């Protein structure tokens, strides 16, 4: 478990970083928190020619709120979102519920949200949230800056729309309105391991009628999934009574949405200890529960 | 000792421990093994030529290269080829018959028999360069079908060794029974249990550093039995024992998995002598996942019969054991399960049979509990099933069958002689500590509330064996008193985290009546101790402690004799108390240090033998099950253990807590999944093999009862394995109780969410006929 040899560059600015990334003939990896990169290098599943360490590019260490969006720079660590106040409104609540599922506190001090989006692991919490909430990924490269919507960003396991020579500088989320309710629930075998399934949800409700549902699925396909079919089935549905049991009342629209998400939106793969039958079942259950948590959070 | 519970804690918890990997030896080379990525196959070619050209790589060998080496320079003249891995007869873990015709080569010669088996070894200036070299070694293996399940392997349609059956050992305990025993019983429970393969997972994986010095060799190794390692290496090399020194520095856990001479150890020693340079191997986690010894690995069938009042009539246990690819280390280990099959009950007829089957997996070997968890889980799960069948409370069923305290020593139908016990007392304390009646009331309330999550209560009563098997129940100890008041205690046990540095000096100080701070313990160095056995089978207090106490007694005798000669009186007229001799007739006492100033250093040593101990206990667990997802939330664990007389309550409680956590690991999380080619799916290390982490550990209450052992002078029994033995069945029984399963076979460990979800959908007890 030792990495193969590699070159190492430590730029101080974004232009210096872009210079370091410019030789597209080489296999170059960007190092921020190193949460996955360092492990994969030790396993020698990744053997880059050059590692570009951006930790001293201070302009990337920025979290800013303006015009109804929050922009998260490439050096903002996971741990920054443990407080629900870090980001205004229900989005801050959602982030804080999700982030405690990411590894352990020491890792959250190093790992970054943008790093997760760059790595694009199907079990990443941030990737599913970005997909569900229409985030934009902002990049700089040899041809200038561009932004890519999350819906077009993820191309498969560990594959994204990033082009050679490009640096992700930040990710931008639209803030959620104060009338939104959010939910995030993760299901896994121990705290240490990847999610078997996790679900992120944001609901807006008028009266008791669902105006809009946005649902992101973690580890339910080869990339993060936005559960469009389930969301569509919920639009205009009556939240009705949620009851107090651990199970939703029979026939509740959230149960139906869960089944639709599992059967139509998700494309899970079998894993040890979770075959397809169980995975689809768990997705349906978790979607229902997360929607319920979101509905319970909608201001009355 | 201030803020530290144990003497060694300040060093170990502030990063000042010194492990094998911390030893800085100039010119040391790091060894890295190139490992098979298939489970079973014929090795056709190994090409090391590209690896030899990698910068920083010193040498690369396959088995073929090594056999072509000229005779070792300066080493024994007959050391031309890598010697094979030794087998062990200790504790009847292996047998001569089992290894005949089944050589375990250090590097694969022609047949790969388990995934991760080494096909080549690279030594480099450091581990980075050696790994770079290893990446350049190419090899071809013609894959053969792999067998990983013992019953399938026993069919011999695929043989691991040509011309020999995969069944490498068969054994029996107790007398067979006629069918009428079962036909005449009011209730017979039949079940199948899988005791999955587990990995011991110490924090520090295996380590060895071999340093040739003149005509001697010093071996630094994280090891439980340094004298055994010395003996096995000396035998392999054809050397006398005194040419090898084995030293065990700080060791980060062993749990049974560090007591053999593994293939890598043999290779490192051979290479150090061949190259005349220090060579070390520091196993990393991924290697450990593939090639460290495994524990458990049994497929069991049971039959348990009782009369209408719940009195047990007969118990039959049939074991197909998965012992891995070579029979050298653990082919006889499942006999521990057979011998301990009766548990704490006075069942008149018990019959246990063992079939140990070779499979294409790394070798099975003792892992904390070593055969007793398998016995306890099979019996205690069956007891709960029987209680459901007879509609008797599981507590009551156990009480009706416990061997009563007045029956000891008790000889079991399998030939064990239990030393002492009060099994009902342990169960009573567990129930009281848990609040058993309150939890049953809560369970009843929830069963009446369709919106509540089901709750289950599980019990597990166990009796186990500590100290070792006959032939391995002795230990060596020496005590010497110096002029400056220092007492040096030497003992053949080698610790890997058990707290000997705290417990043993306290014992010596108390026995002699001297200041604890002046007692220093020396262990784990074969140059310091002429003989020794080690730390295994929970024997430290029971066996090594007894040896130290015995040596202290000899020292007192010696001191009294010296004083008698000094004073010109008969020995009978010299008294001993509080670390001093005094004339029995009265007069001033003379402290040990003072005496030594006059007489010269006092030193005594001896080998001392104890009897086997049979610790026991009762564990209880409360779980809440989410039947929709299959998740199990452990709300409470109570572990009541009885290890006889406790020397250090903090150390014993730590052993109980830590082993209970490992027991929870077996029940809920740990397992080795294989792909269709027989290769473990563990490429992501501990992300794939899940051990309980701080987040998963429930509230665990540890308590004890004390029933002294009559078979060892201290009255102490073993304390190191209780939770691995007692806790798993309590957890599984609690889940079965929550779900009210008609067919308990549906719950096979680990109880992962998918397993529990499937079981939760199956017919309930009340629905079945």
Automatic annotation (TrEMBL), chain A:
PROSITE patterns: FAD_PCMH (PS51387). The keyword ATP-binding does not apply. It comes from the Bacteria. SUPFAM superfamilies: CO dehydrogenase flavoprotein C-terminal domain-like, FAD-binding/transporter-associated domain-like. GO terms for molecular function: FAD binding; oxidoreductase activity. Residues 1-178 form the FAD-binding PCMH-type domain. Keywords: FAD, Flavoprotein, Oxidoreductase. This is FAD-binding molybdopterin dehydrogenase. It comes from Streptomyces bingchenggensis (strain BCW-1).
From TrEMBL, chain B:
It holds the Pfam family Ald_Xan_dh_C. Keywords: Molybdenum, Oxidoreductase. It comes from the Bacteria. InterPro entries: Ald_Oxase/Xan_DH_a/b, Ald_Oxase/Xan_DH_a/b_sf, Ald_Oxase/xanthine_DH-like, AldOxase/xan_DH_MoCoBD1, AldOxase/xan_DH_MoCoBD2, AldOxase/xan_DH_Mopterin-bd_sf. GO terms for molecular function: iron ion binding; oxidoreductase activity. Residues 14-145 form the Aldehyde oxidase/xanthine dehydrogenase a/b hammerhead domain. PANTHER family: ALDEHYDE OXIDASE 1-RELATED (PTHR11908:SF132), XANTHINE DEHYDROGENASE (PTHR11908). This is Aldehyde oxidase and xanthine dehydrogenase molybdopterin binding protein. It comes from Streptomyces bingchenggensis (strain BCW-1).
